[in-house]
Amino acid sequence: MFAAILIYGFINSSILALVAMGFNLTFGISGVANFAYGAIYIFAGFLVWIFLNTLGVNYFLSIILAFISSYLLGYLMYRFIILRVRGLPLSEVMATFGLGLAIMELFRYLDFVGVKYSLPVFIDGSVSIGGHFIDYQRLLIGVVAVALTVIFYFFTHYTKMGLAFRAIAQDDETALTLGIDPDRIGAFSLALGSSLAALAAVIILPLGTISVENGYEVLINALAVCIVGGLGSTVGVIVASILVGYSQTLTANYIEPHWMILVSLAAIAVVLVVKPSGIFGKQKELEERV
Amino acid sequence: MLTVKNLMVFYENALAINDLSLKVGEGEIVGVIGSNSAGKSTLLNTIAGLTLDLKIKERRKGGERITLMGEIRYLGEDIVDMLAVHRVKRGIVLCRERHPIFPESDVMENLRIAAYLHPKAHFRKMADYTFDLFPQLKKYRRKRAGFLSGGEQQMLAIGMALVAGPKLLLLDEPLLGLSPAMQTRLVGAIKDIRATLGITIVISEQFARPVLPMIDRGYVIENGMLVLAGTGRELMENPEVKSAYFGV
Predict the structure, then answer these.
(1) Is the minimum CB–CB distance between B108 and chain A shorter than 8 Å?
(2) For residue A282, is pLDDT > 70?
(3) What count of Cα atoms within 13 Å lies in the side-chain half-sphere of residue A247?
(4) Closest approach of chain A CAs to the CA of B248, in angstroms?
(5) Cβ partners under 8 Å of residue B23, min gap 6
(6) For a Cys-Cys bond, which of A171, A191, A263, B140 suits A74, CB 3.0-4.6 Å?
(7) Quick check: B129 and B176 in contact, CB under 8 A?
């Protein structure tokens, strides 16, 4: 039992980390809370399904196309919607949330409902770890989550673009005086965040069916992880994913799987009351010093 | 190198810069002296393009109306409507007041961020020069910049501006809030930057005493208007400057 919780908790944490990473990336860099995040997630899922089943494109190619589409969607969203309300957080939230609702409800309106909307797993089969069977897809989720975290660390610390990200995240005016264009980086952060949502979608969705509700669920989970971890903090995302992930798994095991989403909601509520800046609230340490 | 002609800057109806003209020659150190809210920062921000950037942002969200009029010629080109990023690419680098650094990054990372537009070789050369200029920073390479003292942050900010590859370096109140000893050290460094790298420098300051001896020429501004211009020596001996800025 203990081993099972350990393994499934890890997979669940990986799912949460994957889901939260894109949201956190966009917020951490440009300060835009992308509430259309869940919509982009199912947009990517449905797009793969459409390419694969309606248009008969090969699975791998469909995934690539969904990536590119999500990237463009994020980019266009910044250029045409967010740019006008840049620096007005409430308007940014309303704009992205409204767009997200529109996308998600459009899919419902177009009747994208039912069990037939599911994606095939990448590799069929499972492996036994300590007597517990775990399918390759779930294993892959764990591997991708860990790999992505490592890649991400190197990207933000050792590449020019990554360093520009960190610069914009800290002080965009100083970055501008060094020749870093905040709008360009902002658009890129939204585009990259959106393609991370797509990555999470194509790798997680084969575990179940694609539904509009997934979009809301993903948004809640992403928010929960980011709020618990402290918005914009990468370490926070990892720690919070593990915390929320294992709490969810324990809840599913000892109470009822149905209650898993309640863990996220409760986590949001508790953190906002007890420590609103989250476990790794940004710059707290420095602010207190100064 | 730089010619500002009849520059006017309005924030809504408030006049921040009023019909200001000045010239900066290649290789000069030029001072802009003025009290608080005289328009020093607005002037430097306008030359660097930050005011234009602010104007665009405010217009987008329907905020404050900023109006820019006049001419700023840099290396024979009118740059009034050029975006800040392109000005940096052409070599106008501004080091804003109150030591702008990235507090969460360590000293080396701050310098690496500043090298955004430049290849590695350039970065190495300028980073080495920065550490020669400010040996004190050497031992803090891996320290988070937010934990440095004000003077050290100012040194780092100047180092970052150098890594950004300036032909024209704009320093906005680099001596603000620093101890006299630290001020002397920075004045020495600024002279060294011109002597070693041949960079043209514009420096703004409200306390004229430490700055006047090092500048070739200076402009005194009040309420966004030019009230006096002259060589450093002329300004130092001017009775009005003496009474207003030296407290004599």
Answers:
(1) no
(2) no
(3) 19
(4) 36
(5) B2, B3, B4
(6) A191
(7) no
Using a CB-CB cut-off of 8 Å, the residues of chain A touching B105 are 166-167, 170
- Give the 3-state secondary structure of residue A194: helix
With respect to residue B81, please indicate whether it lies within any of the assigned structural domains.
Answer: no
Interchain CB contact of B5 with A (< 8 Å) = no
Walk across the sheet containing B2-11 and list its strands. Answer: B14-24, B2-11, B66-74, B77-78
- Domain of B108 in residue numbering reads as 25-48+86-246
pLDDT tier, A283 (very low <50, low <70, confident <90, very high otherwise):
very low
Q: Does B96 touch chain A (CB under 8 A)?
A: yes
Alpha helices in chain B (DSSP H): 40-48, 50-60, 84-89, 107-114, 120-133, 135-138, 150-163, 180-197, 208-211, 232-237, 239-241
How far apart, in whole angstroms, are the C-alpha atoms of residue A74 and residue A105? 18
CATH number at residue B200: 3.40.50.300
Determine the 3-state secondary structure of B142 from DSSP: coil
Which amino acid, residue A122? F
Q: Is residue B208 part of a domain?
A: yes
Answer yes or no: is B68 within a domain.
no
- d(CA B143, CA B152) in angstroms, rounded, equals 11
DSSP reduced 3-state for B78? strand
The C-alpha of B88 sits at a distance from chain A's nearest C-alpha, in angstroms, of 5
Interface touch A177/B88, C-beta < 8 Å: yes
Cα Rg of chain A, angstroms: 19
Determine the residue of chain B that is closest to A172 in CA distance: B102
State which H helix or E strand residue A117 sits in. none
> If you measure CA to CA, which chain A residue comes closest to B101?
A174
Q: Which candidate from A86, A88, A179 shows the least CB-CB separation from B89? A: A179
- Element containing residue B30 per DSSP (H, E): strand B29-33
B chain contacts of residue A187, beta-carbon cutoff 8 Å: none
Q: Work out the percent of chain A whose per-residue pLDDT is above 70.
A: 97
Q: Which stretches of chain B score pLDDT less than 70?
A: 246-248
Overall number of domains in chain B: 1
- Token digits for B134? 């400010």
- The pLDDT, as a whole number, for residue A51 is 92
| CB within 8 Å: A166 and B109 | yes
